[in-house]
Amino acid sequence: GVWEFTAENPASSSPSESNASAQVSLLFAWADLLAEGIWPDAPAGSVVSSCQDAEDGSVTAVISTIRAEEHPGDASDDWHGSFAITAKPGPGLGITCRSGLRADETAGWDDFAADGILGNARRRENEARGGGNGAAIAVDLNLRPGERRAVAFALAWDFPVIKFGATRSSRALWLKRHTRYYGQSGNSAVRIAAEALKRYQDWDRTISAWQSGVLDEGEADASATQDRQSDSCTAEAASPSGEVHEAAQPRDPAYTRPHWYKRALFNELYYLVDGGTLWGQPMGSNAGRQHFALLECFDYKYYNTLDVHYYGSWPLVLLWPSLEKLIVEDYADAVLQEDLSLQYIMVLRKQAPRTLQGAAVHDVGSPHAAPFSRLNGFAFLDPNVWRDLNCKFVLMAYRLHVVAEAGGEDKRLLRRVWPAVHAALHYLKELDLNGDGLPEHHPEGSDQTYGLPE
Q1: What is the pLDDT of residues 286-303, one digit of tens each?
Q2: What pTM was computed for the model?
Q3: Burial classification of residue 397, based on how many CB atoms lie within 10 Å of its CB (0-12 exposed, 13-18 middle, 19 or more buried)
């Protein structure tokens, strides 16, 4: 994340106030909260904090749970990684750093309060092992009367490994997507923070341009508004990269979205990055196929719950169809898999096979097991007898093909998933026992996702 603060000296530049300069200092502190017992496998005293100088004048505080000299290879556990906080250098900005801070001690805060800088005469603190798990960056500057300055701080982290499984026998290690660009060492937080400070203004402009087609609707003159609305069929389908996909027929040019709806269109995208999001690949698969998944919610910890994703996947279809392709392809692969190992179905009070070939899955797994390997983490009901999942899988595949593959001209996705589509429809047809074109209800009930029977 990047935070930009604006400091202003409100004094006027009149002769009577010509000496009314203002000395301003800002402090940004961070602690490795993950070291507070969240990772039971992390040894005691594994947190190291230090301050590093860069050639461009920037100073970075690094809080690490892995040291390069002690772990010369790549990160191999989910607690191996680092945080970094830094400030953007600039003329007249003094940047100081202090490491080894503790939240329950006041030495660091007293140091800053005394003169607005950290350390003795801007001295960089040496590496602190066994001290606190926090560090801080301070920026001090002098503002002339009427002067305004922007000060930017960045926070980044690099924890390459995801560990799934509640027991050692079910453990599965994955590498996050960013390792394709920053490697697997766990020591790249400094690089990530530096890139954020270098590019955040470009990112901000790009995001604003992307959103303006919706947020500015109705704010300009009528002709400009009509021009934008003439392309309203793609307004919500334009990604930040500028890629556009046809999504619907044009609306009435006189229509303007309510302000609450405009805000919701963008704000509710938060779940794509804050929904227990998984984007990566199993460790050891080299540059293998990527997977993208979201939890149904934090109460129901199942990845890519199919019936929920069927309704909630429009943002991915319209904005980031390449991610939706990963999900649909995983559903297709799951349809063709079979796992006859038994799991206890709570409502039925009996055991049933985990997955049957031809049946669309409820989910692609749980973080408590090995997702994408142990399918159908949901065991409250038996997903293999649900009648609507197969239909929804087929409709999702066809919808993505029409929207994302040049209006249906590109057939690569259909060819990729066709064996699964055929198997899913055949499985569904077998549930039609009297030939009327409709699947019969399962004799034990609970055979669809629309609700439990009375």
Answers
A1: 667 899 999 999 999 999
A2: 0.84
A3: buried
